[in-house]
Design brief:
two-stranded parallel sheet, mainly alpha, two-stranded antiparallel sheet, about 130 residues
């Protein structure tokens, strides 16, 4: 049995290198009977000065999953807590700006759409997305 620290180490590594897959999903996977469950795809880890050499890998991992989702009409749910950006603000904002710019590229190329969890749930309830 793996220890909790082993699990945390694997999760941390997965933020930088694809160990567990893209974590994108078809919209119909969010609907379970009459309930809507929107799973997360990736936690946007804040900039870590001590691991700054790994930051390009983290961005590459996120962008690759975003492209994967946009090409397949799937959902990519990137989440973070704004308070996580309280340290190294300049680097965190730069990272978020780069992700937003990449989103715009995917929107222009594939029609990738950015919606809130509430908007996605409403679209699913109204059957406005392919199920």
């Amino acid at each position: 049995m793996q220890s909790l620290s082993d699990y945390r180490a694997l999760r941390l590594m997965d933020a930088y290198v694809n160990i567990s897959g893209q974590h994108t999903f078809a919209p119909d996977n969010c609907v379970e009977q009459d309930m809507i469950n929107i799973p997360s795809s990736r936690f946007l880890r804040p900039y870590a000065k001590q691991a700054s050499f790994l930051e390009p890998l983290k961005l590459y991992r996120i962008k690759k999953a975003m492209r994967h989702a946009s090409q397949r009409g799937e959902v990519f749910h990137l989440w973070f807590h704004p308070h996580n950006f309280g340290t190294n603000i300049k680097e965190n904002i730069a990272m978020l700006q780069e992700i937003c710019q990449y989103y715009e590229d995917l929107q222009n190329e594939f029609g990738f759409e950015s919606v809130t969890m509430q908007e996605l749930a409403q679209k699913l309830a109204r059957k406005e997305v392919p199920l």
